[in-house]
Design brief:
Elements: E1 7-11, H1 15-27, E2 31-35, H2 38-47, E3 52-56, H3 64-74, E4 79-85, H4 89-97, E5 102-106, H5 110-135, H6 137-140, H7 151-163, E6 170-173, H8 180-189, E7 198-202, H9 211-216, E8 217-218, E9 230-231, H10 233-236, E10 241-245, H11 252-264, E11 266-268, E12 275-277, E13 281-286, H12 290-295, H13 301-307, E14 310-313, H14 324-338, E15 345-346, H15 348-356, H16 362-376, E16 381-382, H17 394-401, H18 415-433, H19 438-445, H20 449-458
Parallel strand pairs: 1-2, 1-3, 3-4, 4-5, 6-13, 6-14, 7-10, 10-13, 15-16
Antiparallel strand pairs: 8-9, 11-12
Helix pairs in contact: 2-3, 11-13, 14-16, 17-18, 18-19, 19-20
Length: 462
Amino acid sequence: MEEVKPKILVVDDEESLREFLEIMLKREGYDITTAENGEVAVKHLAKKSYDVVITDLQMPKIHGMQVLAKAKESDSEMVVIVITAFGSTESAVEAMKLGAYDYITKPFKIDEIKLVIKKALERRILSRENVLLKKELGKQYNFGNLIGSAPSMLKIYDLIGRVCETKTNVLITGESGTGKELVAKAVHYNGPLKDKPFVTVNCGAIPENLIESELFGHKKGSFTGAIADKMGLFEVANGGTIFLDEIGDIPLQTQVKLLRVLQEKTFKRVGSTDDITVNVRIIAATNKDVMQEIGQGRFREDLYYRLNVIHIQLPPLRERKEDVTLLAQHFLEKYNKHLDKDIKKISKEAMDALISYDYPGNVRELENIIERTVSLERGAAILPESLPPVIFHPAAGIARRGGSEQMVTMDGVNLEEIVGNLEKELIEKALKKAGGVKKKAAKLLGISFRSMRYRLEKYGMD
């Protein structure tokens, strides 16, 4: 399937600049249309939609402001970038108030305009995804992805039903793989903010030196590599919800700034002295014991109480075994469809084995097991022999990976060596499956990127 190139309309009455932008942007892989004035641009906009419009302001016949208005009229999510001379920055600011994404002053640097276009396209994609999500709200996030009828889950459904009607901050805790992000989405998409942004931040996947810039943005020149102003994710989420996953991995210095946002609804971009005010609901999640983190000085107690207005504790799958059948059947149907299979059922013997297993990786591990089994199964039913060996011999599996076929004997075993060998093997497999991408491998293992880097250094794999 041929990749669809992003479509950009370049509008400028200066021929040399127009041709330069056309050549440069085509080299970047974009589909470029040019217009020598606003009148031609308006005709183009009447015929087709563009992802990005780059327009000069001062042009004969039709002003750039009218081009902006026409673009927004034809598609409210179309991203418009204004090019302006130094003397007309006031007009550019006015254009931004009318819906322009950004403005670039002449003369501009090539890297600057490339970065602004890249960010503009990211905004366009995000807008499209939000539109699609809103269309799917009724069936996707009406607790539909939270499956289970165990008493502990019924209590969680009830709590979600009550808290989603408010704009209160929520803290979700639970082991990796229990479905914390699904709960966050259920809270957001069933409440008064459902038509507002929902922005997910994996705090553990962002390098420590960049996390403040990601959350709060930065000013051009505030540090090496900051070649343009950047809007932080709190600004992107303004009016809606920001989901801070793996909140326990945020450095203490950033926790102070986050506390200020919670208390005063304001923050400063990195390198700026100007306060930015936002109205954002925070849903945070962690798989760590927060009280233990507080006791060891790694997490601020005042921040914890600000986040923990409503606490949702997700149970591990081993504590709600009655839900394994429902979940396994759900994943069977899901991967039958995704993998174009027609497996009719899970045999009683296979289901009994699935129910007996303890799932250290929780619901995510069960889903991975069913996906693997469906992809390899050739018959009409999933049989016990189709399931991975770990289902039947979890402890023996660990021992084999540690280089021993025996369980603990009177002579003892080297637990550190066994666990270390298993951990190293799982990391190697995750890296292979992720094509060597460390962040993706960390996600597959259910650990933070920082934790992944520590393990790679520990085993000399970095």
